[in-house]
Write a structure and sequence with these properties.
By secondary structure, this protein is of the alpha+beta class. The protein is built from 4 helices and 3 strands, in the order E-H-H-E-E-H-H. Strands 1-3-2 form a 3-stranded antiparallel sheet. The longest helix is centred in the C-terminal third of the chain and has 24 residues.
């Protein structure tokens, strides 16, 4: 199944995000950038996450390291919630 890709430059324009911010997210392992023919792309599944990170960065003034900490905590909470549902006998 082929994934839908969006150009980083288009994401930056439509969301009013600096390209360097996207690159920092990638360098910190928060998003994946795909390079094809010297053009940077993001998979569609990551767009919502980029928008969330952008809100945290521009509205809450979190730096990329802070975003990474918050995302790791959210991931851990979600994992614990899944384990709790499993232990309670749910799916």
């Amino acid at each position: 199944m082929e994934k839908t890709l969006f150009k980083v430059i288009d994401i930056c324009r439509s969301n009013k995000i600096e390209r360097t911010f996207i690159q920092e997210l990638h360098q910190n392992g928060l998003i994946e950038i795909i390079i094809e023919e010297e053009t940077e792309f993001i998979e569609e599944e990551q767009i919502q996450q980029i928008q969330r990170f952008s809100n945290w960065h521009y509205e809450l003034e979190l730096n990329v390291q802070g975003i990474e900490v918050v995302q790791n905590l959210i991931d851990r909470i979600e994992k614990l919630q899944q384990e709790l549902r499993f232990l309670k006998g749910g799916s």
